[in-house]
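Researcher: Re-running this chain for the archive, since the previous output was lost when a drive failed. Same request as before.
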Amino acid sequence: MSEVDQLCPNCGLCCNGVLFADVKLRKGDDAKRLAELGLPLEKKGRQQAFAQPGGCFDGKLCRIYAERPVRCRTFECGLLKRVQAGELGADAALGTIVQAKRQVEKVCELLRGTGSDDERLALSHRYGRAMSEPVDLSGGETSAGLPGKLMTTYRDLMQTLQRDFLK
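Model: Regenerated structure tokens:
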């Protein structure tokens, strides 16, 4: 079993809106075909792009994997690269994925507490919306402290993602 087959279906952070908010199409992508396959495209500046979480991602796998966009074909996270290079074992990498997904779930739980529970949006957009809302001091210490807790938890997640997935 390849490293991709071991790690990627257990992760999905590059497809579920955690690592990226959107993916721009590149030379070689057939925008018409991708749209036919169910990938909702939109204009981002001069380029076509699709928002994450990807419309073809089922939570584990991409429904259009064989015809996925060039950027999706060429992206390899830092964790996968380290396993492929023999610097890290697959079991350790799977443990890192589990840890990162727990951190994501903690952030999502806090976001739900702020009312920012639209899981069709990338995590960074949900976080940005929640942090731009005024703090409700009438709800007592719990609601007043929520933005600070969310900020700290999100920062910790971003550090993990930067260290283990985006290098």
